[in-house]
């Protein structure tokens, strides 16, 4: 016979802990999904750009379509989420402008640097984010510096001693590292309170404005895309932007920017595999050694960024 005293129920603390675990799990799932989707972008974009399409044209069409999809979805299912305070709009503008510069510099670099090489260089991103998070309370230790040194040696082997990397292309990737790191920590510090859909729409819209300006300053190059190019643009817009950014912001809201940065190797390895398979890109043995050192430095940084240390800057 079952009595009321034999029935067990979760205590409030247990319920809170279970919800916390679910939140973290969802955060990692969203983060991995975003990384996999993002890993498709570099090899697909590189293939189209090498084929003759202007980087600014490809990026502008991609973001314009993604912005229309995000805005249209919000207008249909939750138009109230399009409303922002003046402060909210200002914060979105700042972060969106950073994001616009980041994606412009990276896409521009693909005209000079192979997809696999650029992806490996970008895998140093977690360390850049770690350095920027010092302004939010993260302490830099000797181990952090040793990991940074390991990555720097790897990049030298990759692009210097063993590489045939165009210096201007490497410079553009460096700029994109800084801009992306700034964007990621600003999302953590300033945008965590905003709805994922709202953040995705406004940041993508401001990115589109910046990229549109870049496209215009380059003379608004236009050659009607082929069917294959339109297919790539559609995939980049829907999977690489619409889905990837929604998943990214949902992940940041649950586990933080520092943890998301640690997933960069997933994106790097996805990009390298696709570049080798579809673009027939090859690295020299010394470049593989450099890439291995960069990835090793990234993986060694896994214990280095702790979510509990992240603090929101004063409002």
Question: How is this structure best described in words?
Answer:
The chain has 315 residues and is an all-alpha fold. The chain has one domain (26-309). 74% of the residues lie in helices and 0% in strands. The chain has twelve helices and no strands. Helix 3 (86-109) runs antiparallel to helix 7 (167-190). It is globular, with a radius of gyration of 21 Å. The N and C termini lie far apart (58 Å). Mean pLDDT is 79; it is low at 1-7 and 302-315.
Number of domains: 1
Low-pLDDT runs of 5+ residues are 1-7, 302-315
End-to-end Cα distance: 58 Å
Number of strands: 0
Residues in helices, as a percent range? over 70%
Computed CA radius of gyration, to the nearest angstrom = 21 Å
Give the helix tally. Answer: 12
Query: Which band does the percent of strand residues land in?
Result: under 5%
Order of helices and strands: HHHHHHHHHHHH
Q: Helix- and strand-based class?
A: mainly alpha
Specify the overall morphology. Answer: globular
Q: What's the rounded overall pLDDT mean?
A: 79
Summarize the structure.
The chain contains twelve helices and no strands. Helix 1 runs parallel beside helix 11 and helix 2 runs antiparallel to helix 8.
List the helices and strands and how they pair.
Elements: H1 12-50, H2 55-77, H3 86-109, H4 115-122, H5 125-132, H6 142-161, H7 167-190, H8 196-217, H9 227-255, H10 257-261, H11 264-278, H12 285-300
Helix pairs in contact: 1-9, 1-11, 2-8, 2-9, 3-7, 3-8, 4-11, 5-7, 6-12, 8-9
Summarize this structure as a short list of keywords or feature phrases.
single chain, 315 residues, mainly alpha, 74% helix, disordered N terminus, disordered C terminus
């Amino acid at each position: 016979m079952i009595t009321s005293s034999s029935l067990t129920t979760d205590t409030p603390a247990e319920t809170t802990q279970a919800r916390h675990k679910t939140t973290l799990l969802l955060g990692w799932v969203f983060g991995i999904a975003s990384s996999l989707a993002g890993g498709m972008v570099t090899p697909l974009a590189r293939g189209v750009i090498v084929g003759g399409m202007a980087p600014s044209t490809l990026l502008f069409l991609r973001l314009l379509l993604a912005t229309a999809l995000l805005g249209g979805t919000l207008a249909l299912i939750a138009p109230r989420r399009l409303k922002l305070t003046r402060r909210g709009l200002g914060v979105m503008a700042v972060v969106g402008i950073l994001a616009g510069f980041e994606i412009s510099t990276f896409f521009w670099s693909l005209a000079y640097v192979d997809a696999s090489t650029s992806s490996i260089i970008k895998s140093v991103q977690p360390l850049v984010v770690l350095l920027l998070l010092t302004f939010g309370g993260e302490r830099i230790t000797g181990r952090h510096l040793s990991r940074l040194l390991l990555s720097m040696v790897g990049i030298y082997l990759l692009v210097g001693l063993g590489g045939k990397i165009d210096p201007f292309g490497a410079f553009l990737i460096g700029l994109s590292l800084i801009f992306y790191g700034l964007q990621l920590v600003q999302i953590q510090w300033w945008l965590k309170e905003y709805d994922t859909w709202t953040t995705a729409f406004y940041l993508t819209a401001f990115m589109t404005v910046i990229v549109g300006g870049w496209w215009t300053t380059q003379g608004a190059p236009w050659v009607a895309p082929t069917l294959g190019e339109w297919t790539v643009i559609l995939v980049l817009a829907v999977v690489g932007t619409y889905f990837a950014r929604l998943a990214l912001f949902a992940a940041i809201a649950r586990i933080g920017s520092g943890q998301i940065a640690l997933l960069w190797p997933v994106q790097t390895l996805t990009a390298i595999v696709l570049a080798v398979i579809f673009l027939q890109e090859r690295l020299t043995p010394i470049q593989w050694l450099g890439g291995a050192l960069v990835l090793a430095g990234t993986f060694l940084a896994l214990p280095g960024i702790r979510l509990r240390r992240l603090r929101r800057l004063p409002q």
